[in-house]
Amino acid sequence: MTDTTPQPAESAHTAGLRKALALGAVALVVLMMLSAGLWAALDGTPGLWGALLGAAIGGVFVLLTAVVVVATARTSPTVTGAVLLGTWLLKLIVAIGLVAALKPLDFYSKRAFALTIVVAMVVVLATETVAIIRHPAPSVEPVPGA
């Protein structure tokens, strides 16, 4: 027999995280377009590449944290914490590796790259934070079937 017990609706906290993730991704795309246009005007093609690479690395670094939290929302706090710590370490290693691999190359503007990484991280994190703060969520959620 199949279990026909209705599954609980998505928690308000997970819904807030999904909204924050979506808004963070939109903010990253907008920033990427603005930064690419600005740096292309200032430094030409190297500025364009620096802005695109910086936005991709900086924005994805922050967005992946929200993805991991949403993916582990139905696990225990210990599992969520362990997965967050592990992915944070992995992201840090990958980011350092990417920056080290890009350092000797000269097809991109290093100035555009560095500034766009920082701005992308701040913009995406700020957007996600505002989305979470403004999302209505109860302090306590009822346990289904209790």
Secondary structure layout plus pairing:
Blueprint: H1 12-43, H2 45-71, H3 77-102, H4 110-134
Give a brief description.
This protein is mostly helical and 146 residues long. It has four helices and no strands.
Outline the structure in words:
By secondary structure, the chain is an all-alpha fold. It contains four helices and no strands. It has helices spanning 12-43, 45-71, 77-102, 110-134. It is elongated. It starts with 11 loop residues before the first helix and ends in a 12-residue tail after the last helix. The relative contact order is 0.20.
Count of helix runs = 4
Question: Low-confidence stretches at least 5 residues in length (pLDDT < 50)?
Answer: none
What would you call the shape?
elongated
Strand content: under 5%
User: What structural class results from the helix and strand content?
Assistant: mainly alpha
Can you give the mean pLDDT? 87
Portion of residues in helices? over 70%
Q: Give a quick account of the main beta sheet: strands, pairing sense, barrel closure.
A: none
Oligomeric state as shown? single chain
What distance lies between the first and last C-alpha atoms, to the nearest angstrom?
24 Å
Structure summary, number of beta strands: 0
Radius of gyration: 19 Å
What is the element string, with H for helices and E for strands?
Answer: HHHH
Descriptive tags:
single chain, elongated, 146 residues, mainly alpha
